[in-house]
Specification:
Number of strands: 10
Structural class: alpha+beta
Oligomer: single chain
Mean pLDDT: 80
Radius of gyration: 39 Å
Distance between the termini: 99 Å
Helix content: 40-55%
Largest sheet: 4 strands, antiparallel
Number of helices: 7
Strand content: 15-25%
């Protein structure tokens, strides 16, 4: 399908004024002819004028069906007896063939996204007497505005098999109304489904966090890297955007941006993963403490030797190193034992 833009149709006000002027003229001549009948001065032409006035009053309202009003960033896809004739775009008061119909199969679809709420949504009731009324009829207009789709959170296994809960927001818009309406059954549901599929395909290629026990290639270049869902969120979001765009190009949609809005471990393993993170942090902290303690012991021995404070043999140095490491690496305050006798 190729989109065809209908131009030069902003004559709705002229047609509307012409209809009312014609209606007034028809009423004037209708009354005049009736008066002639009352005075018995009617002619054959009077009867023809009367018939024309009646036909105009009965059928001229059909012209009003061709009046279309569009606001900024709205469009209408028009079909005539099943054939696509073009798309109206841009704000204005239009007049088209009165027998054309607006076509939008996604008009009744309500997703969790901006711009997807009917103007009359607050008036929708569940009462049976209002179900078929025009009061709740959805608009057939197609919005060309930028919209944000918030798909529900999904539980997906990462590359290590850990279940992860993730949510995504997709900013999108319609660029080709003909493709959006005719190439797919419902472009809103199509976008939502393709977003879920692309999200699963990308998330399965990354670990939630970098694990030193596993070497993982997340870029496909054959070399292990440090990519992860938590640490490389910008790269992951860009790949998700490109994946979705490739899938919805056929439907005339443009993906402007994709952002991860929620990311966490699934509840069933969240506690275990928290303990693992705490253990990793504890090991890192202990390693830093030990490195610092060894440096301080080395500095103490070097100072004692440089300033010739005391001459220690290897056995006494080992005892001093042991005591200093206990003091510096211990969690609790130590209670030193003071030796008041001879060192030897």
């Amino acid at each position: 399908m190729q989109e065809k833009i209908l131009k030069g149709r902003k004559s709705g006000m002229v047609v509307l004024l012409g209809y009312f002027i014609g209606l007034a003229i028809a009423a004037f001549f209708f009354i005049k002819v009736i008066n002639q009948f009352d005075t018995h001065t009617d002619t054959g032409m009077s009867r023809i004028i009367l018939i024309v006035c009646v036909l105009y009053a009965v059928f001229a309202w059909i012209l009003l069906c061709g009046l279309k009003v569009l606001r900024p960033q709205e469009s209408l896809v028009l079909t005539l007896f099943g054939k696509y004739i073009g798309t109206l775009k841009g704000e204005g008061f239009y007049f088209v063939n009165p027998f054309v119909t607006s076509f939008n199969p996604a008009a009744n679809t309500r997703l969790s996204q901006s711009g997807d709420v009917s103007e009359n949504i607050h008036h929708v009731t569940n009462s049976p007497d209002k179900e078929g009324s025009n009061y709740n009829r959805p608009s057939k207009r197609i919005s060309l505005k930028v919209m944000t789709l918030n798909n529900s959170k999904q539980k997906i296994n990462d590359i290590l098999g850990n279940p992860v809960e993730i949510g995504i927001a997709v900013i999108w818009r319609v660029t080709d109304t003909a493709k959006a309406v005719f190439n797919v059954d419902n472009y809103k549901e199509f976008l939502s489904l393709q977003t879920d599929t692309a999200l699963r395909n990308i998330i399965r290629q990354y670990p939630y966090d970098v694990n030193p026990s596993f070497e993982i290639d997340t870029t496909g270049d054959g070399e292990p890297d440090d990519g992860s869902l938590r640490g490389s969120s910008e790269i992951v979001a860009q790949r998700i955007k490109e994946e979705i765009q490739a899938r919805v190009e056929f439907a005339g949609l443009e993906i402007i941006e994709a952002r991860i809005t929620y990311l966490s471990y699934a509840p069933e393993i969240a506690a275990a993963m928290l303990q693992r993170q705490q253990a990793s942090a504890l090991v890192d902290a202990r390693a830093m403490i030990v490195d610092g303690a060894v440096g301080m012991v080395q500095m103490a021995l070097d100072k004692l030797q440089e300033q010739d404070v005391v001459d220690l043999d290897e056995e006494r140095k080992a005892a001093m190193v042991s005591n200093l490491l206990v003091v510096l690496c211990g969690n609790n305050d130590v209670s030193p034992v003071v030796n008041s006798g001879s060192l030897y």
